[in-house]
Amino acid sequence: MKPMPEKSSILLIYTGGTIGMKEDPADQALKPFDFSQILEEVPELQKFAFKIDSFTFDPLIDSSDVEPGLWQALAKLIRRKYDDYDGFVILHGTDTMAYSASVLSFMLRGLGKPVIFTGSQLPIGSPRTDGKENLVSSIEIASAKDADGSATVPEVAIFFNSRLFRGNRATKADSSSFGAFTSPNCPPLAEAGINIRYNKAAIRQYDGSPLEVQTELDTRVTILKIHPGITRETTGYFLRDPGSRAVIMETYGSGNAISKPWFTDIVSEACGKGKIILNVTQCQAGEVDMNIYATGKTLKAAGVISGRDITTEAALGKLFCLMGKFPDNKTVKELLESNLRGEISE
Ligand code: ASP
After folding, report:
1. 31 lines ligand 1 (CB under 6 A)
2. How confident is the model at residue 5 (pLDDT cuts 50, 70, 90)?
3. What is the Å distance from ligand 1's center to 62 Cα?
4. Which value, to the nearest 10 degrees, does the dihedral of the CA atoms of residues 102, 134, 345, 148 take?
5. Ligand 1 binding pocket includes 95 (Cβ within 6 Å)
6. Euclidean distance between CA atoms 344 and 341, whole angstroms
7. Is the CB of 20 within 6 Å of ligand 1?
8. Do residues 83 and 189 make contact, with C-beta atoms less than 8 angstroms apart?
């Protein structure tokens, strides 16, 4: 292992998103612009007494276009540069930021350094931008060390609107306000006021194990949202699809779905054939508990796995990673019920 540089050093990774967008006069649509212009907009970055290098993805994208290939490229980049930097800040669009932060948290095992996602609701060149504060505080958090020299936040996290959230607990909940993200089932890891106050009790401790980066992902997952009026045909289409290995079923309240025999028959048939069905609540907060109502008990009896208080974004990332690593669904099902990276409450 290389000796640690005395001063902190940060790698700023730019993938795209509103933070770096500008209006194209041709069609008035926001499109990504060059990274050097971001640096020009934030002269504050030069006031940090440490090294900030940058890496720009090509092409820059609106995060609605994110694909697993970007996550694999990010994970490989972090692996390649891990010993050279004390922390990583990833500039990313807000639309899929919670998906990317979630999956990265599972791809990076034994993480001992901060990987902080941030972005903004208004482009960094706009007078009222939230991008500067988000970027500057993210860099400060990515470089923060405890008295013993270890990283204060050895986690994949999202910094937005003065709050730091665990990446696999966050969700985009507001498309218009500066507070785009919430994390209803996990308190913020830090809050930025005059000082940045770290919530040490909520931050996961680094266990000292070496970084292991998983880049194999199995993306054969679909998401079925239960709603009044859903038909037998739609349910069957999702649960009988031979192209999917797992289905995230977004259910009502504490994990309830339709109690009609046609529905439970399709669910039982799919579970019987080995399909992984993960029950995630449509509610923003709270958890799945299939022991409360008859409608939940039927799902449990059929073999549906409880996602407990996991977000849909984290469920997707967890499934992609577990399925990418384990060819047998039994192991995947067992690990879905375990807390791997702080994504579910103990
Ligand atoms: N559509 C943009 C994106 O996700 C929105 C944003 O960055 O806030 O890239």
Report:
1. no
2. very low
3. 6
4. 100
5. yes
6. 8
7. no
8. no
What atom of ligand 1 comes closest to residue 21's alpha carbon?
Answer: 7
Q: Are 20 and 38 in contact (CB under 8 A)?
A: yes
Q: Residue whose CA is closest, atom 8 of ligand 1?
A: 94
Statement: residue 336 has pLDDT above 90: yes
Ligand 1 center from residue 208 Cα (angstroms): 35
What does the block give as tokens for 274? 């080995």
Q: Count of CB atoms within 10 A of residue 346's CB?
A: 6
Phi, psi of 213 (to 5 degrees): -110, 120
Look at the pTM and tell me if it is higher than 0.85. yes
What are the structure tokens assigned to 186, written together? Answer: 């996990």
CB 217 within 8 A of CB 208: no
Give distance in angstroms: CA of 313 to centre of ligand 1: 16
Structure token pair of residue 267: 């669910």
CB–CB of 41/124 below 8 Å?
A: yes
Residue 214 pLDDT more than 70?
yes
Tokens of 91: 């500039």
pLDDT band at 6 (very low <50, low <70, confident <90, very high): low
Instruction: Give the strands of the sheet with 163-166, arranged side by side.
Output: 51-61, 9-16, 87-91, 115-118, 156-160, 163-166, 190-192, 196-198
The reply to whether omega before 59 is within 30° of 0 (cis) is yes
Provide the H-helix boundaries in 168-230: none
Of the candidates 102, 211, 100, the residue with the CA atom closest to the CA atom of residue 154? 211
CA 239 to centroid of ligand 1, rounded, Å? 31
Ligand 1 mutation pick, 19, 63, 64, max ligand atoms within 8 A of CB = 63
Could you report the per-residue pLDDT of 74-132, keeping only the tens digit for each? 999 999 999 999 999 999 999 999 999 999 999 999 999 999 999 999 998 889 999 99
Task: Give the mutation target among 14, 38, 62 for probing the ligand 1 site: most ligand atoms within 8 A of CB.
Answer: 62
Going from the Cα of 88 to the center of ligand 1, the distance in angstroms, rounded, reads 20
Residues tagged active-site: 18
Q: How far apart are CA 19 and CA 234, in angstroms?
A: 38
Q: Are strands 156-160 and 115-118 parallel, antiparallel or unpaired?
A: parallel
